[in-house]
Amino acid sequence: MVMIIPKLVEFVCERYPLSSQVITEQYIPEFDITDIVYNSCQTNSFDRYHRLNEEQILPRIFNKICYIYGQIKPKKIFFLTVDGVTPRIKMNQERSKQFQSAKESLIKREPLADVVLPGTAFMAKLTAQLRYLVAKKISEDIEWRDVEVIVSGPDVPGESKHKIAEYIRLCKSQADYDPNTKHCMYGIRDDLLLVSLATHEPNFALVCEQDDAQNADERKKSQYFLLHLSLIRECLEREFSSLKSSLPFKYDFERILDDFVLLSLITSNDLLPRLSGLQVNRGGLNILMKIYKEVLPTCDDYIQNGGQITLTRLEKIFARASTIVESKLFEEQYVEPICKLSPPYTKPFDDPQHQQVATMPTFITETETVIFNAIRNYLSDHTHSSVLRFPFAFSGEQRSFALKLVKDLDLSCLIAYSHASKVTELELSFAHNYFADEADDDHSDCDPSKSEPSKQSRLNEKRQKVLQEYSSLELITDAEFNKQLEEKKKKELEPAIEKWKAAYYKEMLDIDFFASDLLEHAVASYILSIQLINSFYYQGILSWRWFYPYHYAPKLSDLKDLGRFQGFNFPADQPFTLHEYLMAVLPPCHKRLVPVPYQGLMTDYKSPISLFYPTRFYTDFNKNDLDEECIPKIPFVDEKQLLEAIQSKQGLLREHELRSNRFGEIYHFAYDKDQNRIYKNPSYNSRLPDVRPCLARETVYHPPAVIQDKPILLPGAKLGKDSPVGFPSLDHISHDSLLTKHDVCVFKKESSKDTMIISIKNRYTDTSLQELANLLIARQVHVGYPYLKEAIIVGVSNSEYKYFIKSKEEGESHNFSKHQWTEEEREAWYKKKCAIQHKYNKRLGLLIGDTEFMIHFCLLNGMHRNEEGAIAKRYRHPSNASVIPLQTIVIKVSNPDDRFTCTQASSQGIEAKANRAWHALNDNIITHNTLNNNTITAHSIPNNNKVDHHNTAWGPLNDNHDHTTRHSSNNSGNKYTWGPLSNDHSNTNTIHSILNNNQDDNPNTTWGPLNNDHNNTTQRFSYDSDNEQGLKYLPAREVANDCKISALTLSKITSSLLVMESNGNKLNVGLNLKFEHRKERVIGYTRKNSIAGYWEYSDRAIGLIHEFIAAFPEFVDLLNTRKENTIPHTEEFMWTTEQNDYLYKMRDWLNNREIHSLHRATI
């Protein structure tokens, strides 16, 4: 089953295809896990009778949270929210959803779907375990320690999006708020997109998940991608830029953005029934955007201001939309069905195109004058062609005019329109074969009319009279005529339209269209509901209990005289309690989820509220394309009756049921090393261990008070080319934009909607390949426009030659060589170019023009400190270079990433730093900051001195050392030996490194067990595999980060890893420490976390992994950058000419360490 993309998200992505990107970057704070709860409740099995239990669901939720956390890498705030009790206007939508889901399960004879609603026992457990998870991660995972975590569970009222919007509003009101704060929110819902836009925070991204699973195996692979609001903002600004010159008031894009949010809300929100014809999937938002551009210049200001809508301006939008949308619906739903039932060639209403007007017209239009003059000129001069051509298609009225004029002139005609040339042809003919003017004496002998002079004379006189009559008609403009025609049609069709609307209101809303008070109530309720929902995004929840009491919306043409509703004050009220909420939304088949005293209210036919819980009801799919837009015709809950019935049973509740009805608090977590307490596991899950010690300080979060109101876009916010690192912009390259149909393919299908096409300008014309090589090779640039990433250019090419960088030898600067393509290479180059252009064109809507040159680049992999102490950038190996069209690169950015700043080595500074570090080792532990990110060079340490390398600290190796702190990798540029401590050390499994200035110059790291004199580096790597006592294990994600490789690469090298030789044989060169399919692990090296479900590696395994990486760095780098999901081949070993020998070297390395003889056990 392919996951359905929300319609507004689909509309935005297809209209602005550059705004969506497959996830590769890391961002930050707000994190809405309501979608995670929903997705985690879905089974990977396609068996419709299979349902997951709570012990399976909760680990899925927590795994997803940890995974997304690792992807976005928060730096400041991590906001976990779950939907709580929602406003009444949202409860009606949830109630319909629950009733329809239960009905479908009954029809299909499937088990009832899982219900994840606030107030249920499951959600109470989720809240407790979320708090436990955060406390555990902060205490045990260093990546969580610098981040504040806020948890707002389902026991806190409000939808997740409202909680997040409120949090951002409060933060923005503080005096010290940074206008360039980066935000990231998880979710792929239309409302989350609108919430993000309404914050006016330019540095915002949505992490979205697209599940395109066709079967159970594919469902395991979810694709995560980003929606960049910075690009959506820029595209919207370009689309509405035409208003700059036409508005009678000041142009303000932020105000236009608010109006766009309102128009999107009208067409896509799920809290109100859609206005007929304005659904997003029917082009409703596209229609409103076009109308907005036309109507706004006629207004005195924007439609809304900070969430407050000016209804008279909105009315203008509705009035224009009704003439377009409603007339089309009237034709579809009323006129066409009647025409199908009527006799052939008849219509229910007068059609000027199919009747001839018998009376003389009283006026003539501008276009009709053109037709009249052409016919008159033909009559006055016989040399004119009898075929008259007009560069426009005749309307029905113009056709009728031409036919009457020709008839009055006693002529015959044939009217035809050519679609190819877009020309109307009017072919005239006379009653006789030839006619000429009487004054033409030269042809009098040939004129057959001479035989009847009196008859011809009368005919000429008649024609002259007709021409004079038409010439004397009043001339009116085409616009004035069209207006009169519309008024006439409206007057003629008004009875039929009223009949059509009356039937709609009676059937859909159950009200009398001609009863003005009932119609006004429906219109008022709908308009005020729009105002209420819009305020959710800007002002918070103005009313918890207001709702729209109909299943369908009024007609667009009835949304008029809206000014009378301006200034309405919503009643101040409180949210429903948790029990009241469940009773209001759940169907009777889910009665087990409410306290026992309330269950009879749902199923007992004598219950005073039994009508609220029908077991049979009609579902109207309303001609919508998707089932989730169906409308269950269930009764609305009467709040007063519901609360009275609940109150009558409240005395029967037990203590734990009363507790479950209380609202909770928002909790704030932060790392505190001075905390020394035990965080108890949730009482209902004894499998979870207590957190000992708990280093997380947990307090009740109190939102800050509003300090001052600030503009919607704060001063100092960096936009465009100055945007913070990681947030893309179109402004990095000069370009043009055009909104047109382009058939882009964003979601595996071509779009028929309008798309904004970006055409970039080629800045490298009239340049030779040699000049480009001299200019660009070995130069740092940014690639991937508009999602820029730093890279270094290692080659340039065209269809004939390639200039490529040579390996840098010792003491030699970068240089390059020239290579002429072979025929096969030339064809491959051309195919690659075409593939890239096609992707830019059809996926991104980016036109890059003809590509003459391609650059070959290597992406930045990170930073490292070399042996001299300088911090330098590390790029991928040139054998893994990628190609991209030259015109898409960016040479320089105005806001470079300060995380990748190189520093030069200072000999005096290095020596002084090493001396300070060494003296500190005598009695103290040196922290990360002391040694500047855990890096110290080998030659800086005095001879024969040893250093203990830990993740959190450095310390001397002495006989009584008992530290058990876990290991973290160092840079491969240093020479050190890894292994377990033996003999006199209390912990024989702690991993240490020795920096020894007397080591030989062999760059390969030597591995082996360390004895008490720390000089033996020749023994093979060996452990007692049965002894696991005292071992420390780290999650796979942390180990991968530690090793500077991807989690996928880590999984590959620690499992069975097959490589194909040139003769076709396959060789296993993996470490074979874990076996997922066999459900096996290696004792003392790996284990699988039974709660979270991820693999963990011991200190022993980490040492072995580092040894493998150090021995075969090129092979690991190949795995880390390889995109194909196939068995690697030795032909890919571009770093050596002896590919098979390199493979056999790996095999011998594994055999020497007897990796395959390590003991295994089941997971």
Instruction: Give the helix level as a range of percent.
Output: 25-40%
| CATH arch. level architecture of one domain | Beta Complex
Largest sheet: 7 strands, antiparallel
> Overall mean pLDDT score?
79
Give start-end ranges of low-pLDDT stretches. 24-29, 42-50, 213-220, 340-358, 432-446, 912-1027
Radius of gyration: 38 Å
Distance between the termini: 32 Å
Structural class: alpha+beta
Number of helices: 29
Shape: globular
CATH class of one domain: Mainly Beta
Under CATH, the topology of one domain is which?
paz domain
Task: State which percent range the strand residues make up.
Answer: 15-25%
How many strands appear in the DSSP assignment?
A: 42
Task: Please name the defining characteristics of this protein.
exonuclease, 5'-3' RNA exonuclease activity, 7-stranded antiparallel beta sheet, Serine Threonine Protein Phosphatase 5, Tetratricopeptide repeat, alpha+beta, paz domain, 1163 residues, nuclease, 5-stranded mixed beta sheet, 5_3_exoribonuclease
Can you offer a commentary on this structure?
With 1163 residues, the protein is α+β, with helices and mostly antiparallel strands. Among the domains are: 578-661, Serine Threonine Protein Phosphatase 5, Tetratricopeptide repeat (Alpha Horseshoe); 730-806 and 817-900, paz domain (Beta Complex); 1033-1162, no CATH class. It is 34% helix and 15% strand. The protein contains 29 helices and 42 strands.
